[in-house]
Design a protein that fits this description.
By secondary structure, this protein is an alpha+beta fold. The chain is 16% helix and 42% strand. α2 packs parallel to α4 and α7 packs across α9. The two termini are 28 Å apart. 41% of the residues are buried.
C-alpha cells in the first residue's frame, strides 16, 4: 500500500468527514467504462469477493488462499476483522503494478493485475498471493475490532478522529492509521515473506540498501520514523522496516510482533507516541528497540563491500540517477533512463561501448526498459490511456503514443527478429512468458507459450530465451532453444538456493549468462556457465543494482549509494561461488502455514455467484453530527448539522445526504429591530463515476421562517413564501486532448424556485492544463493552464478567464506569469476570486477589486497581470515526538497590476499589488506529506491587505 494511497484516504477522512460533503469528495480506483463485475458473497469468511470475468479461472484458488490467510491472521494478530471485507480483483483494463487496503469507506482490499514489471524486485513466486498476504496484513494492522474504535465504527462508520467540545484533544477511533510507514509496511513485508512465496526479505537488493545505509551511519530513529526526502525515499521504509519487524519477530515471535497493533489500537489519545505501547507490549521503548535493532546488524553491515566514490581517481562516474531503470544494449551502445535529481523530466542516457562517451537526451517517456524501433526510443511499461478508460502495458513512445501491436504486452526483450514478452492478461498469478518469432514473410510469425516463469527474461543474439523458474526454495535458470526439438527446446542450465535473481545479459560465444543475485551482504554480479552448469561471482561489490556487458571483461554497472544509483565501469574478477541463500526461522518450522494446494481448496457454489450492480450494492459508509454555537451582542446562533455518505464497494456511485438546522435567537432588547430566524437546509447529492463522463445531481430544500416575539409561533415550514427549492445537475469530463494536456469540462444547470417564482442558473467551467513534475518536485517544472468560467442567472452574467504559466529556472527557481480577465453585470462581484471552481487556484494571490453593489445597468471589466518568483530551499527539520515536521520550503515574491472600469463610463482605475508568500512541504505524524501555501498581498491604492492559505495547488 503506497504512502500516497494512505495519504489520500487519511486526508479524505480528515477534511471531508469533518465538513459538509460535496459531489467531488470521492475516490474512484477503477478505469472508466470498466468491464462488468461479478460477486461471490461468502459468509464463512465474512468477505464479499468482487471480480471481473477475467479472473474466473483463478477465482477458486484466490478465494481459498484468501480464506486461509484470514484464518492465519485471525490467530496471529489476535482478532477478527470488523464487518464484511470487500475483496476486489480488478479487470485487465487496470494493469497497475500495485494494490491497496483501506478502511474508508469500508474494509476493502483492491488487487491489480499489472505486477509483471515487479517480478524481480519482489522476489515472489506468485504476484496475486503476495498481494493478498501483504494487503490483508494492512487491514488487520489498521482495524483492531475492540474498544472505542469498534463502538464508533458500529455507530458512525469509519472516521480518523473525533473532536468534542468538552475534550480538546482529538480522539482517534482507528489510531493505527497514523502509525509510521516503518511499522505498517515493514510488518507487511515481514508477513509477505513467511508463507513459502518468497518476498522482499529474500531480496539481495533489500539487504544491499539496508546494509549500505547502516554502514554509512545514516540510520537513526528520526530518519526511520519520518518520510524524508533522502534517497531511497519511501522504499527505505518498506525494506528496512521489513528487517526491523524481522528483528522483533526473532526476539519476541511472529504473533507477538503482529499483536502490537492490537495493543496500540487501544491508544485513542495521541497515537503518534509509541514508547508507551512498546513498553507495555515488548517491555522496551520504541527508541530502545530501534537502537538495539541497528546495533544487532551493525557489525555484519560493516563487512559489506561498496565503492568509495569520494576522491577516488580509479572510478569514472558516467551518470547518476534517482530512479532505477533496466538497461538495454545493441552492438554499439548501452541505453537506459535516468533522472539525476528527481526534480525534472527523465533523460535517456546512451553510453558508447568503445569510447564510453555519454549522450543525454531529455525525454517524456515513462520509466521502463528502452527499445529502439525505427530509430525511435520506446519504453516497455504500463501507462494510462488519454481517456482514462484503461491502464495497460505496451511500448510507449514520445508524446504519450504507444504501439498497438504491443498492447497488453510487458515486453522483456526484442532481438534477432524475436519478441519476448509477458501476456499481462494471463499473468495475475505468475508472469506468463511468450516468444514471438518473425519469419521471412513479415505477415507471418510463430508464437511459443513458455509457461509461467518467475523472472524477467532476456534473449541472446540468436533468439534463444533465458528465464528463471522457482522450484520451492530453489531458483532454476532455463534456456529455451528456438531451433531445438522436443525435450531439447527447454534446457535447465543452473540451479541455486534462494528466491532472488535478475537476468541482465548473455555472452553467447562463451555460453555465459549474467545475472544479479543475493550475496551475504547485498547483491552482486554472477555468471552461469551453460556448459558445465557452474557459477562464478564477477565482482566483490555487494551493491550492484544493475549491469550490462561491454566486452568479455568489463561491465557498466549501476551501483547503489546513499546519493542514488551511480553508473561506472568495473572489470571482471571471477570467484567460483554460488549466490547466497537467506534462511529464516519459518523456513525450518514445519508448523508454518503451507501454501494452498488444490487438495485444500473448497469448490465455489456457482449459484452463489451473481452479477454486481452498483445501486443495490450501496450502503451507509459513515455519518456524523456537528454542533456549534456563536454568541453575539444581538443574540446567539446555533447550528446543528447531520451528514451521511452512502457508497458502493467499487466506489462507482455515491449518495451524500446533509441536513443543516440554523437557529438565530435574538435577545429581548433587540427583538423590535431584528427577526429570530430559523433556516433549515436539506440536500441530497448523487454522483456517478463509473463512466468517462461523470455526472451528478443535487436536490436542495431551504426552509426559512421567523418571529419577532417569542409568543408568536413561526410561520409554517410548508409556507411557499418561506421555502426555496433548488435542483442542480452537471457533468464532469476530463480528457487528454493533446499529449500531457488535460481538458476538464464541467457544465451544470440549476433550477431555483422561491417566493412563488422560479429561474434557471447556468454554469460552465473549462480547464485546459499541462502540468509536469519530477518525482521529487515541489513545483512543476512545466506548467501551462487556461481556465474559463461563466455563470448566468436572473441577476445577470459573470465570466472569468485566466491563463498562467510556470517556467523552471536554474538552481530550482521558478517564474510564474498569470493574466486574468473578469466580466460581470450582476451584484456582489469580487474581481480576482474564482466564480465557483476552487479546485484549480490561481497561481498568484491577489487582493482583487470589490465591485460596488449599486450600479444599475453598469457592467464591470477587470484585468490583472501577475508575476511571481519562487525558489526552493531544500532544508528540513524532522522530529521524533512532535507531530509536524518541515521537509523543505519555497519562498516567493509577487506583484500584480490591476485595471478595471465600468461600462458606459469612461473612467477607469489602475492599481498595483505587492506581496510575498511561502510554500511549506510539511509532514504530518511522520508520514503524511502536505503542501501548505501562505501568501500576503497588499493593494497600493487603499492599503487593503489579504492573507491566503491553500492546501496543495500549483504553487
Amino acid at each position: 500500500m503506497p504512502i500516497l494511497v494512505r495519504l489520500f484516504y487519511t486526508l479524505h477522512i480528515l477534511f471531508v468527514s469533518a465538513l459538509p460533503f460535496t459531489p467531488l469528495s470521492s475516490f474512484a480506483f477503477l478505469a472508466k467504462n470498466d468491464k462488468d463485475y461479478f460477486k461471490y458473497d461468502n459468509d464463512t469468511s465474512n468477505a464479499l469477493y468482487i471480480f471481473s470475468q477475467d479472473h474466473a479461472t483463478h477465482l477458486e484458488e484466490l478465494v481459498n488462499f484468501h480464506r486461509q490467510i484470514m484464518l492465519e491472521y485471525d490467530k496471529s494478530f489476535g482478532y477478527k476483522l470488523y464487518g464484511k471485507t470487500n475483496v476486489v480483483f480488478t479487470s485487465y483494463r487496470n494493469q497497475v503494478a500495485n494494490a491497496f487496503a483501506t478502511l474508508y469507506p469500508f474494509n476493502t482490499n483492491v488487487y491489480y493485475s499489472g505486477g509483471t514489471s515487479l517480478v524481480d524486485d519482489m522476489a515472489e513466486t506468485s504476484w496475486s498471493k503476495g498481494l493478498i498476504i501483504h494487503e490483508m496484513g494492512h487491514l488487520y494492522q489498521l482495524n483492531p475490532s475492540e474498544g472505542f474504535g469498534d463502538f464508533t465504527r458500529r455507530i458512525f462508520g469509519t472516521y480518523l478522529f473525533f473532536v468534542y467540545p468538552i475534550i480538546p484533544i482529538p480522539l482517534f477511533p482507528q489510531p493505527n492509521i497514523i502509525l509510521p510507514t516503518l511499522l505498517l509496511e515493514g510488518n507487511s513485508v515481514l508477513n509477505e515473506s513467511r508463507f513459502q512465496n518468497g518476498g522482499r526479505l529474500y531480496s539481495g537488493a533489500a539487504r544491499a540498501v539496508f546494509y549500505r545505509l547502516l554502514k554509512e551511519n545514516l540510520l537513526d530513529e528520526t530518519r526511520l520514523l519520518n518520510a524524508h526526502l533522502s534517497f531511497p525515499y519511501s522504499a527505505e521504509k518498506y525494506l528496512i522496516g521489513g528487517y526491523y519487524n524481522l528483528y522483533l519477530a526473532n526476539k519476541f515471535g511472529i504473533d507477538k510482533t503482529n499483536q502490537f497493533f492490537k495493543v496500540h489500537g487501544q491508544h485513542y489519545f495521541l497515537p503518534i507516541i509509541l514508547n508507551s505501547t512498546f513498553k507495555e507490549h515488548f517491555g522496551k521503548s520504541f527508541s530502545q528497540t530501534i537502537s538495539d535493532f541497528l546495533d544487532s546488524y551493525r557489525e555484519e553491515a560493516s563487512l559489506q563491500v561498496a565503492s568509495n566514490f569520494t576522491n577516488n581517481p580509479n572510478i569514472k562516474i558516467l551518470a547518476k540517477s534517482q530512479i532505477k531503470s533496466l538497461m538495454n544494449s545493441d552492438q554499439e551502445n548501452i541505453f537506459f533512463m535516468i533522472n539525476s535529481d528527481g526534480r525534472r523530466e527523465n533523460q535517456i542516457a546512451s553510453i558508447n561501448k568503445k569510447t564510453l562517451q555519454v549522450s543525454l537526451v531529455n525525454s517524456d517517456l515513462p520509466n521502463g526498459k528502452l527499445f529502439i524501433l525505427n530509430n525511435e526510443y520506446y519504453s516497455a511499461t504500463s501507462s494510462t490511456s488519454r481517456s482514462q478508460d484503461e491502464t495497460f502495458y505496451s511500448l510507449w513512445g514520445k508524446n504519450r503514443s504507444f504501439l498497438e501491436e504491443y498492447k497488453y504486452k510487458d515486453v522483456n526483450d526484442i532481438r534477432a527478429a524475436t519478441q519476448l514478452y509477458f501476456d499481462v492478461n494471463k499473468s495475475f498469478t505468475s508472469p506468463r512468458l511468450f516468444l514471438k518469432k518473425y519469419s521471412d514473410n513479415a505477415d507471418n510469425s510463430d508464437n511459443s507459450d513458455l509457461g509461467d516463469v518467475n523472472s524477467r527474461a532476456i534473449l541472446d543474439d540468436t533468439g534463444n530465451a533465458y528465464f528463471f523458474k522457482q522450484k520451492e526454495n530453489k531458483r532454476v535458470l532455463y534456456r529455451f532453444n528456438q531451433n531445438g526439438t522436443g525435450n531439447d527446446k527447454t534446457e535447465e542450465l543452473c540451479e541455486y538456493d534462494g528466491h532472488y535473481g535478475r537476468l541482465i545479459d548473455v555472452n553467447k560465444p562463451k555460453n555465459l549468462i549474467y545475472f544479479i543475485a543475493a550475496t551475504k551482504y547485498g547483491e552482486s554480479l554472477f555468471a552461469c556457465n551453460g556448459k558445465n552448469h557452474s557459477f562464478s561471482r564477477l565482482s566483490p561489490l555487494d551493491t550492484i543494482a544493475n549491469a550490462s556487458l561491454i566486452d568479455d571483461n568489463r561491465f557498466l554497472i549501476a551501483e547503489f549509494s546513499p546519493d542514488g544509483y551511480i553508473y561506472h565501469i568495473i572489470t571482471v574478477t571471477e570467484t567460483p561461488t554460488s549466490p547466497a541463500a537467506y534462511e529464516y526461522a519459518w523456513d525450518k518450522d514445519n508448523h508454518s502455514p503451507p501454501a494452498v494446494t488444490p487438495s485444500a481448496t473448497i469448490p465455489l457454489p456457482q449459484e452463489e455467484i451473481s452479477s454486481y450492480h452498483m445501486l443495490p450494492a450501496m450502503r451507509l459508509s459513515n455519518w456524523n453530527m456537528h454542533y456549534s454555537k456563536k454568541n453575539r451582542t444581538t443574540g446567539s446562533t446555533t447550528e446543528t448539522k447531520l451528514v451521511a455518505q452512502f457508497s458502493d464497494p467499487l466506489q462507482q456511485n455515491h449518495l451524500f445526504a446533509e441536513g443543516v438546522f440554523n437557529n438565530q435567537n435574538i435577545d429581548a432588547a433587540y427583538q423590535r429591530y431584528f427577526h429570530s430566524n430559523s433556516i433549515n437546509h436539506f440536500s441530497l447529492t448523487y454522483l456517478n463515476e463509473k463512466y468517462i463522463l461523470n455526472w451528478f445531481s443535487t436536490l436542495h430544500l431551504y426552509q426559512n421562517y421567523y418571529n419577532r416575539e417569542n409568543s408568536i409561533l413561526p410561520a409554517s415550514p410548508l409556507s411557499s413564501d418561506r421555502n426555496k427549492l433548488a435542483i442542480e445537475a452537471g457533468v464532469i469530463l476530463p480528457y487528454e486532448i493533446l499529449p500531457h494536456f488535460i481538458l476538464t469540462i464541467k457544465p451544470t444547470i440549476s433550477y431555483i424556485h422561491e417566493y412563488e417564482t422560479g429561474y434557471y442558473e447556468k454554469y460552465l467551467s473549462l480547464l485546459l492544463k499541462k502540468s509536469r513534475s519530477g518525482p521529487l518536485s515541489l513545483f512543476p517544472y512545466e506548467l501551462l493552464q487556461f481556465h474559463l468560467e461563466g455563470r448566468q442567472n436572473y441577476q445577470g452574467k459573470e465570466a472569468a478567464t485566466e491563463i498562467g504559466s510556470m517556467i523552471a529556472l536554474p538552481w530550482e527557481s521558478f517564474l510564474a506569469l498569470e493574466g486574468e480577465y473578469h466580466y460581470a453585470n450582476q451584484i456582489s462581484t469580487t474581481f480576482g476570486v474564482p466564480i465557483e471552481d476552487s479546485s484549480n487556484p490561481a497561481l498568484i494571490a491577489s487582493v482583487g477589486k470589490t465591485v460596488p453593489g449599486d450600479r444599475s445597468n453598469k457592467a464591470f471589466h477587470g484585468l490583472r497581470g501577475g508575476i511571481a518568483l519562487s525558489t526552493v530551499i531544500n532544508y528540513g527539520a524532522y522530529y521524533r515526538k512532535f507531530f509536524l515536521s518541515v521537509r523543505r520550503f519555497g519562498p516567493r515574491i509577487l506583484s500584480n497590476y490591476l485595471y478595471h472600469n465600468y461600462h458606459y463610463h469612461y473612467d477607469y482605475q489602475t492599481d498595483k499589488e505587492f506581496g510575498g508568500g511561502i510554500t511549506l512541504d510539511l509532514l504530518l505524524a511522520h508520514t503524511f506529506p502536505l503542501k501548505l501555501n501562505m501568501d500576503y498581498v497588499r493593494r497600493v491604492s487603499d492599503k487593503n491587505e489579504t492573507v491566503r492559505f491553500t492546501i496543495g495547488g500549483n504553487i
